[in-house]
């Protein structure tokens, strides 16, 4: 690709279009960091709600906490689906590793 000689203004236009389509690496990193921070906050809320459920609560309080726990769990599932896959895992058989209990 280095042996192709294009005029500078053409190269600049191509690079501008390419950059406009893909967010910069630092921008993507900031987005993932923000999503991970939101995920941590939601996880902490779930832990707090589970602890609260183990305490003595009246029916109204228990229903409220259970509803909030459900909302937080749904939000976690949504956030996990939105976070880009950082490392792709190969299926065990493709990697040459047999799952436990599998017979040859």
Walk me through the structure.
The chain has 104 residues and is an all-alpha fold. The protein has 3 helices and no strands. Helix 2 (25-53) runs antiparallel to helix 3 (59-82). The radius of gyration is 24 Å and the shape is rod-shaped. 1% of the residues are buried. The model has no long low-confidence stretch (mean pLDDT 76).
Attribute tags:
3 helices; 104 residues; rod-shaped; single chain
Please indicate the percent range of residues in DSSP E strands (runs of 2 or more).
Answer: under 5%
Strand element count = 0
Radius of gyration from the CA trace? 24 Å
Average pLDDT level: 76
Order of helices and strands: HHH
Contiguous runs where pLDDT drops below 50 for at least 5 residues = none
Structural class of the helices, strands and pairings?
A: mainly alpha
Number of helices: 3
Looking at the structure, what is the overall shape? Answer: rod-shaped
How much helicity do the residues have? Answer: 55-70%
Biggest sheet features: none
Amino-to-carboxy terminus distance: 47 Å
Put the structure in a nutshell.
By secondary structure, the chain is mostly helical. It contains three helices and no strands. Helix 2 runs antiparallel to helix 3.
């Amino acid at each position: 690709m280095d042996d192709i000689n294009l005029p500078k203004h053409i190269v600049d236009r191509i690079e501008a279009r390419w950059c406009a389509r893909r967010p910069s690496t630092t921008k993507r990193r900031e987005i993932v960091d923000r999503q991970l921070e939101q995920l941590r906050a939601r996880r902490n809320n779930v832990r707090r709600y589970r602890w609260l459920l183990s305490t003595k609560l009246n029916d109204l309080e228990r229903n409220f906490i259970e509803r909030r726990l459900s909302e937080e769990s749904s939000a976690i599932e949504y956030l996990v689906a939105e976070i880009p896959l950082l490392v792709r895992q190969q299926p065990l058989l493709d990697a040459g590793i047999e799952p436990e209990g599998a017979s040859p």
